[in-house]
Specification:
This protein is mainly α and about 140 residues long. About 25% of the residues are buried. The protein has a domain of about 80 residues.
Length: about 140
């Protein structure tokens, strides 16, 4: 006997085991419901749509379009951060209040959609200006 597999892929040198018998039908059990389909439906790879099925597309809201409001927030926040710097702090605070006011007006007219950012810029700029006034009064009382 050779240990080479025959043309069917079995090796005659290995012991041959008998085939396992199928399990018997249980008494009183009847198969009901849908029978399995001999071939499953084609499955697309993960992340790809199945042919013939509708494709779901994520829809996002419009991108923020309030440059003045965004600029007002940035300059108002920088004015609040640099309130202790003599000239830069007050210039940034005034710019923040002005640009935020324009951004809020645009949002009320429907020309912009991030009104909250403009309000935050107005708040930061106003607080920075109030701190400037407090610092100016305190410095004037010392002199």
């Amino acid at each position: 006997m050779s240990s080479q597999p025959d043309r069917y892929g079995t090796n005659p040198a290995l012991p041959q085991y008998p085939q396992q018998q199928p399990y018997p039908q249980q008494v009183g059990y009847q198969q009901t419901g849908p029978q399995p389909v001999p071939y499953p439906h084609p499955q697309a790879p993960q992340g790809f749509p199945v042919p013939g099925q509708p494709v779901m597309v994520a829809q996002y809201g419009p991108a923020p379009q309030n440059g003045a409001g965004t600029g007002g927030f940035v300059t108002g926040l920088l004015g609040l951060i640099f309130v202790w710097v003599p000239i830069a702090g007050i210039v940034l605070s005034i710019l923040g209040v002005a640009l935020s006011g324009v951004g809020i007006a645009k949002a009320k007219r429907g020309e912009a959609n991030n009104k909250g950012l403009a309000i935050a810029g107005l708040t930061c700029g106003t607080i920075a200006l109030a701190l400037w006034v407090i610092l100016l009064v305190a410095a004037a009382s010392v002199l």
